[in-house]
């Protein structure tokens, strides 16, 4: 099913349930087409709350969406193009809370030239395999988080963290040690306010940056420890062939990993998310 969204600002929550597979959702450019909602939740640990969604939320008949999320997609096999998703919750007026622009579930999902805007926990890259190309993700605190296996290509990660405390771009969690799940960023750009590249959602957290330009907003340590007490040594946080003033690894944390050429290729190859050719078969 092809759904064309004409230019405009749409003030609503959107929920694409499990049963609504094979959708092409396209706007007229993320600067002209925007889905926006203002909602936050009171929780101290969204990485647990929204990476272990209750059966009621995942029910095929639930079309009301997820609390604190503007756009939710749980179906398989979809393409989203040229749309912005925003959670317009005002953290300056009401205090910092967990307010997510999009929760991306389902398998074999791709996003092209989309944008995601919020302050805290912007994009819940929840589960399964996803591909993002030429997208813009903006946030301050753990603004890409979840347990998915995803590749981000030619995309911009823009930090808007306020104050002296650096922000955090990623908070990945891999709940099964032998499961191939990771966030891979290749040919991307990191800019904006001071930020860590990420911190672990659990001890199996895996994030790789490859040939990414990092402005001077990336703190020298690169990565931060978890706020939930997980052992950081088993994590796989890695950088390879990155550029820019923020890419200097001289002062990176000691537990950052150095990948072998074979390990690196496993992550950056499109086969990491697509061994059967599903991406090239999408419209």
TrEMBL record:
One of its GO terms (biological process) is cell wall modification. Residues 3-275 form the Pectinesterase catalytic domain. Gene3D superfamilies: Single-stranded right-handed beta-helix, Pectin lyase-like. It is an enzyme of class 3 (hydrolase). It catalyses: [(1->4)-alpha-D-galacturonosyl methyl ester](n) + n H2O = [(1->4)-alpha-D-galacturonosyl](n) + n methanol + n H(+). The keyword Secreted does not apply. Its EC number is 3.1.1.11. The active site is at residue 142. Pathway: Glycan metabolism; pectin degradation; 2-dehydro-3-deoxy-D-gluconate from pectin: step 1/5. The keyword Ribonucleoprotein does not apply. Keywords: Aspartyl esterase, Hydrolase. Belongs to the pectinesterase family. This is Pectinesterase. It comes from Elaeis guineensis var. tenera.
């Amino acid at each position: 099913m092809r759904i064309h969204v004409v230019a405009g600002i749409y003030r609503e929550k959107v929920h694409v349930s499990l049963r609504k597979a094979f959708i092409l959702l396209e706007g007229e450019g993320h600067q002209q087409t925007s889905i926006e909602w203002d909602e936050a939740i009171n929780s101290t640990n969204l990485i647990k709350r929204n990476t272990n969604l209750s059966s009621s939320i995942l029910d095929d008949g639930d079309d009301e969406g997820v609390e604190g999320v503007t756009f939710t997609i749980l179906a398989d096999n979809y393409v989203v193009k040229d749309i912005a998703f925003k959670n317009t919750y005002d953290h300056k007026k009401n205090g910092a809370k967990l307010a997510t622009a999009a929760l991306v579930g389902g398998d074999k999902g791709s996003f092209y030239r989309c944008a995601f805007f919020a302050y805290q926990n912007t994009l819940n890259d929840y589960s399964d395999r996803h591909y993002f190309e030429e997208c813009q993700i903006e946030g301050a605190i753990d603004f890409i988080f979840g347990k998915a296996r995803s590749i981000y290509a030619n995309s911009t990660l823009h930090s808007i963290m306020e104050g002296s405390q650096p922000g955090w771009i990623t908070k990945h969690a891999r709940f099964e040690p032998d499961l191939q799940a990771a966030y891979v960023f290749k040919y991307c750009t990191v800019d904006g306010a001071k930020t860590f590249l990420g911190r672990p959602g659990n001890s199996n957290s895996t994030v790789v940056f490859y040939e990414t330009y990092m402005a001077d907003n990336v703190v020298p340590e690169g990565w931060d420890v978890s706020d939930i007490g997980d052992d950081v040594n088993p994590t796989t946080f890695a950088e390879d062939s990155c550029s820019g003033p923020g890419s200097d690894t001289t002062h990176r944390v000691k537990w950052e990993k150095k990948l072998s050429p074979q390990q690196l290729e496993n992550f950056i190859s499109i086969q990491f998310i697509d061994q059967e050719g599903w991406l090239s078969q999408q419209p």
